[in-house]
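Our preliminary data section would be incomplete without showing what the modeling component actually yields. Below, a chain of 91 amino acids is followed by its predicted structure, encoded as C-alpha cells that our downstream tools consume directly.
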Amino acid sequence: MGYARYKITRGGETIQAGYDVETVCEENGCTEQIDRGLAYLCGQDPGGDEHGCGGYFCGSHLYGAPEGEHGGRCARCLPETADDLRTTPPG
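Predicted structure:
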C-alpha cells in the first residue's frame, strides 16, 4: 500500500487520505493549506484511534505527543496535563 492516496473511514464517513490529498487544517477558523499525510495526522493511525481523533492539522495546531507515544495531537486530544507539549512539534 502506498501512502500518496488511500481511503479511510473516520466518524462513519469514508474520505481520501495521503500526502497527495490537499486539504485545509481542520482547526476551526484556520485556512492553512496542508495535505492528509501522516505528518499532519492527530494520533497514530489514520481514521482515529485511542491516541487521537484522526484529524489533519497544520503545524500551528498540531502538537507533540506525550512521552512514549508517536505522532502529533491536536489541542482537543492532548491530555489536560500536557501544557508543555503545546509548544513541541510532533516527532
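The mean pLDDT is 87. The chain has one domain: 6-87. Preliminary results of this kind motivate Aim 1 of the renewal.
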